[in-house]
Amino acid sequence: MSTERTITLRVNGRNEPGSFPAHRTLLEALRQIGHMEVKCGCEKGDCGACAVLVDGMAVDSCLTLAWTVEGAEITTVSGLGDLDALHPVQQTFSDGGAAQCGYCTPGIIIAAKAIIDAHPDPTEDDIRLGLSGNLCRCTGYTKVFEAVEEAAAIMRAGRARP
Ligand code: FES
Ligand code: FES
Known about the structure:
Number of domains: 2
Strand order of the largest sheet: 2-1-5-3-4
Bound molecules: FE2/S2 (inorganic) cluster
CATH superfamily of the largest domain: Beta-grasp domain
Number of helices: 5
Radius of gyration: 16 Å
CATH architecture of the largest domain: Roll
């Protein structure tokens, strides 16, 4: 008897069915169905590379069982924008050199989106606290913080889509 169960994850506005055992994490499930933009780092909640939005909240997908978020709106970094219409956070990270090797970037951009949604005019403390679960080995964080501030300013000014 199979221990797998078919569930439907709603990812970036699309229903995506998959067959997973009960212990499959959301990180593993998303990558299994093709969302390789969700990065696998520590798999224990330390690095934030795997962060996605679940009903608007940034969560570590490696600490979330896939079946527990069936029916929730899951957003990966690819759901925020694309090459033809980057989200302001994606744009400012690209323009400002806030991504170097890029491995942490999908998770940091997701965390940044959650920060700006909660704090449209974020203080430095808001940004530091909101990114405290995301590790980056390359940037030294200064350019990351600047990119989040700039994205928030763009969004406040309504210069780009939310
Ligand atoms: S892979 Fe999930 S927090 Fe590191
Ligand atoms: S850009 Fe390399 S780990 Fe963050």
